[in-house]
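Hi C.,

You asked whether I'd gotten around to modeling the 546-residue construct. I have! Everything is below, sequence then structure, no commentary in between.
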Amino acid sequence: MTQTFAQSPTDNWAYTTTGDVSIVDLAETTIPKAHGPQGLRMPMSARVNFEHFPLDGYEDVIISVHKGGASLMPGEAMYVLTYREGDDEPHAMVREIKPGSYNPFSTTTIDKNPPGIDLFTPEPAADTEGGYYIVDSVCAHGLIPAYSLFAGEGSWDEPARWSHKPAYRHRHALIQGDVRVDRETSCGTLAIGEGSLRIEAAGELSTRQLTIYSDDTQSTGATELRSAGSLTVQETATVVKTFAQKGEWYFLSLPFDVYADGIDPDFQLGDDSDEMNGNYFYLRTYDGEKRASSQSAADNWTVVPRDVAETSRPVLEKNKGYLIALDASADSQTLRFTSAKGALPDDFGRKGEVSIQVNAQGANPDHGGWYLCGNPLPASLPLSQIEPNDALDGYIYLYDGTTYQPHAIGSDGAIPPYSAFFVKAERDTRLTTRESAETGSYSLLSVGSFRSAHLAEPTAARETTVANAGIAPPAARLCLNGNQASIDNLPSDGHLRVFTSAGKIVYERSLRAGDTVLSLPLKRGLYLLVLQAGEYHERRKCLIRP
């Protein structure tokens, strides 16, 4: 809080006055050591009350008063009321006054957490010479933790959501809730874990560094960053990825290029050149060109060699799909991936684009046109947000742990963040997403891993085998639209159970064979829906948004 009485934009400490108090030009004063262009002149019998402020979240609050006096007589001291706890007595701010003296400008410091102050002068002395004081600045400051944690749901500007007031300017923000930015805001560094950040169309967020935590060992919802506004990351962005297991192959993508110096220093890239044990990770890419040429859906996964880390090329390319595995003997299941400095565009998190280059030639069209894409957003990608593209066959293909399931572009599923999926194209093209910070509710699709050295490859969708495609439906189909569940073609009587991410049943309903529409009484959050009818069994994750 500051007041200089010069109508400065930084003068944010309100005050009221009593008596013949006025603002004067300091160039005209003869009191030495003045600061600034103007000051508040206080003759005798005057008072200035400064607005009180809450002390919550601050430590070691200090108020500094810079003042001087002229033509003073003994008994004409300036006093301060501090309003400190247990202190209701006025304190003299001038120790000794000689007749007719000047009191040069000096600073009086009021410590021990005063919530506000009053300055006042007494009645004039009997032999007064018209003495007065001038105050040219009053400032309150205190210590506040460098980091503040946001929890719950609300706006960045809501103090109640933060552990130590909103993180502005050089302070650091930790997000463990769902926060939205709807105006121009800046912070020192930004870390998002077990929460989400949404920048609305009118919002602009600037930060020096961005860190996003993605933990596959937790059952909570995906950590997400969505934007319809502007995000400026002045230095680097980091994704901290924790994998569910070591020694298994997981689909991975990143929304920025990662060079050798952006790889976690605790790990090294390994390959199949020799026997390795320790803190190594391994990468494979899919060679669609080889598949189209060989006309075979086998042995088309290519090892990323170790020497790529010794080149100027990215180790992991932006928006490209990979398989990654951590060595079974590694010390950790967590890897950090960091972008180059200044590499993130202002539309990061707002829209995505994947360049697809394919070979669609060959005697058997089933083998041509395959490409492993990465999710281009640092958030779940609803299939309804992917722009229609006549160069694609209309599906994305996700491995569910057993086989590749085709999901229709435009349907109600969503691809998890930092995951990868196959598309089948008849020519080179681009997969693009619509701009939107509001995605509604959707079913979060499951992506499996490979537990053995045998790495399966996708096959083209057939109308009789399409999953969740909206055409030629399977024997039974569970669709979600917000809190509404539609169950089609249930083969026999069954039941639906809904579990929280902690495994607690929050809804259960018996069902008749055939078609059913249910309104689920679910609040915002991540749920698991289990539908069973005889031998038919389906499990779906569902993320309910406000």
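If it helps when you're writing up: Residues 463-474 have pLDDT under 50 and may be disordered.

Thanks,
B.
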